[in-house]
Each structure stands twice: as structure tokens, then as C-alpha cells.
Design a protein that fits this description.
Two copies of one chain form a homodimer. Chain A is of the alpha+beta class. Chain A contains six helices and eleven strands. The N and C termini of chain A lie far apart (58 Å). The longest helix of chain A is centred in the last third of the chain and has 24 residues.
Chain lengths: 241, 241
């Protein structure tokens, strides 16, 4: 049985994200960019932002693109799908956005990202690497010239620190695959499900612009609430910094 | 300088969580339990739920407890701190809780968990392992006897499947440590910060009951909204299942 591809909030999210990105850039010089850092078993070392728009994977590394293409071609022949890891980074975010208990900016980012279909994990900064880090390693030393590292991913205690906000996402493999899968019908009897038609073997490839938009919307929303609470003066002072 | 330990929403969260756990257990037989699966470099293999309450780490494995104790003693002498990984599992959750776009149960869980101090990562089901999984491996086969695996962690498309809801948390190492850390004062001059007084070298040790409470509150909230939308009949039908 062929079914139309699922439709959700992708188009409106990216449209709203474009407005948020523009507003953030004009007022604060905030820059929000994302890239794919892993496709299935293939880790993609970061080389340059300039490469991200030059390939359909949003990979920041030209050298690895032929390997990604070959992997996807083989996967498509198998009728299977694969997961991916996406990084999203916001630069020049003013310090002080968020709150320590309610309206935490890290919680709002996690809500937005986990709400994106196929996302099964969200990290901020060091994420799950924090588990095996000592405090003397994880803590970002502060000097007169700024922080010496960014394990916090730009957020401490629910509030932005002024460092880059760094978010990682785990995207699961597409569930609609050509390989037959065991399932049951409405009577509870065993059936096989095979999904034909046009389905991306890796939804992660399309996730980068959506994740960028979600991060932009959360940050702009925080800034508008900050303005509501602190007045336009606060915004103008921050803009001039 | 000695400062009082930070106070937050721990006590009210655990109090509300106790009520939510009781209500969920009485109405649906929902059981919510958590444990520590990793302390710094030490992975704690799951052995038995019965062990969790027998040691101060919430470790589900008696054999590893002496190693954990020795590690913490050495860490305390170093004046350092360490991260941890916590698992929280909800059993017997009715299928159908949540929505596909707004009020997704996975997004609400991520919001609650990332809002807990020191959490830097949240996974549902296979989490970041999904990145390298193929669709034919990740997808949970459905048979007349139920699902054959639970990579989804009990949630698909923002809605509970009736399988166990499985959540993992990355807890960063405590920032308040005795080892002197570089920082700056209000004039922007370099200073060293040393935190004395009573501070847990691993806040992750205290996180398990709080994470259980947060999961209970999210699930009960979803059930009450389901009742508001579908009426008490829905709730009673589900209770009898």
C-alpha cells in the first residue's frame, strides 16, 4: 500500500525560523547554523562551515561526501534506512536569557528539539560526555579574556552565558522502509508491512534546517519575554553591546 | 567563602511526585523506578531492581558498590566531582497518551528532565544509539504477543505505545569543588574560586528520585488531560484493562 509522505509542521517551522533568524541577526548579530556530524556509522569531522551548503547532507567536510553518497546508494538498494546526528550552534546570544527554575532556556530547547519527529536524544554542550567528566575538567574556566572552554554549551543553571549555545540531536532511522517488517492488523493477526513509494532513507538529512529554525524560535521567544519583563531599554542596551 | 547549598524545587517535586506515583499505581498499575547506570568511568550493569534501595547510589548491582564507594572516597580526597548517568522507567503506561505535534509526551519528558539542574542530555529509548542503527534494526517488530523490542522507549510520534517508557539522563559533575578554579571578579580581574563546605561530589547520586518524580508528574498530567478531553469513561475503561 502506498501512502502519501507524512506532513507536519516542517514548512511553518522553517518559515517562522527564517523570520526569527533574520530578527536575531539584525538586532544582536546572532548567527544560527547547523550541520550533520554523523550519518549511521560514518563520523563526519568538522572541517569548515563553507562546505555545509555545498552538499545535500549539510556535511561540513567535502572529503567525506563521496563516502556518504556511496553509503546512501547501497542503503537505498537494501531498502533500509539509517540514523544521523545533527549539531546546531547559536553564536552571539546575549547572556542572561532564561530563568533558573521555570522558563529555563535549556528545557525549552529540549522541548522544541524532542518535539521534532524522529528525534530520540538531545544534548547541550558536553551532553552525555559529562557523565565521565570530572568537575575540574567539565567546569569552564573564566578568565579576563572569556571562557577557556564550553562544556556547558552556552547555558548554566537554565540561563545563557553568552558563549555559543551548542545542541546535538539523535535522529532515528526512517520507519518507512521497503524491507518487510512484522506487524499486526486490527484483528491482532500477524501481517507483514512493506512501505513503498518515495521515502527518505535518512530523515536526518532533512533535519538540519528545521533544527536551526527551532533554536532560532526558542531564542527569539526568550528575548521577547526578556523585553516584556525588562523593557525596550534592556533590548537597546544589549543591541549596542 | 562558604555558601549555603543551592535550594530549588527538589522537595516540592518529590512531594508532588509521590502523589502522582500513588495515583498512577492505584488507577493503572503504573510503576515508575529509576537507577544509576554509570558513575564517572564506572558502568553499572543492571542486575536487579531489588538492589537499588540497598545502597546510597541507587545502583542495581551489589557487586559494584564497593568499587563505587572507593571511587567516591578517592574523589572526595581530591576535592573533585564527577558526572553520572541515570535511567528512569515507567511500566504499564496506557497506550495513546500524548499528541503528534503539540503536547507530545516525549517533548514534555525532555522539558521536565532538561529542567532538572545539572542535566546536560536526555534520551528516550535507544537515544543516541539510534544514530548508527538501521531502520530494520531500530524499528520494533509488532507480533500478536506484543512488541519484540523497545528501541522507541515506549513513545512513537509523540504518543505512548503501551511499552515501558525509558528515559536516560546525563548529569554533569557538581560545579562546586574544592580544587581552585580560575574565574573573574566584578571588575573583570582574575581570581581563584574554591568552594568549601558541604557539597556532594556527585549530584547524580541524588538525581534518581527526582527524575522518577518528574516522569510521574508528566504522565499523570497527560492522563488528566486525556480525561478532560475524552471523559471519565475513557479513564475507567483504561483502568479495567
Amino acid at each position: 500500500e502506498e501512502r502519501p509522505p507524512p506532513r507536519g509542521l516542517t514548512a511553518p517551522t522553517v518559515a517562522a525560523g527564517a523570520i526569527a533568524k533574520k530578527w536575531l541577526a539584525e538586532h544582536f548579530g546572532v548567527k544560527i547554523r547547523g550541520y550533520m556530524s554523523q550519518l549511521g556509522p560514518i563520523v563526519i569531522p568538522f572541517q569548515s562551515w563553507d562546505e555545509v551548503e555545498n552538499n545535500p547532507f549539510y556535511a561540513p567536510n567535502a572529503d567525506v561526501v563521496p563516502e556518504l553518497e556511496a553509503y546512501m546508494d547501497a542503503l537505498r538498494k537494501d531498502g533500509d534506512s539509517i540514523g544521523a546526528r545533527i549539531e546546531v550552534i547559536a553564536e552571539n546570544v546575549p547572556a542572561g536569557l532564561g530563568e533558573p527554575i521555570y522558563a529555563r532556556i535549556d528545557a525549552e530547547i529540549a522541548y522544541a528539539m524532542m518535539g521534532l519527529n524522529a528525534v530520540k536524544g538531545v544534548e547541550i554542550g558536553a551532553g552525555f560526555e559529562s557523565v565521565s567528566q570530572r568537575g575540574s575538567e567539565h567546569g569552564d574556566a573564566l578568565t579576563p579574556d572569556g571562557f577557556e572552554s564550553n562544556h556547558a554549551g552556552g547555558i548554566l543553571g537554565g540561563i545563557s552565558t553568552g558563549q555559543n549555545i551548542e545542541v546535538s540531536l539523535a535522529i532515528k532511522p526512517t520507519s518507512s522502509i521497503r524491507i518487510k517488517r512484522p506487524s499486526i492488523n486490527q484483528a491482532g493477526e500477524p501481517v507483514e508491512v512493506q512501505t513503498l513509494g518515495r521515502h527518505d532513507p535518512c530523515v536526518g538529512i532533512r533535519a538540519t534546517p528545521i533544527a536551526e529554525s527551532l533554536l532560532a524560535i526558542v531564542i527569539m521567544d526568550q528575548l521577547l519575554r526578556q523585553r516584556a519583563q525588562c523593557g525596550s531599554d534592556w533590548l537597546e542596551t544589549k543591541e549596542q553591546e
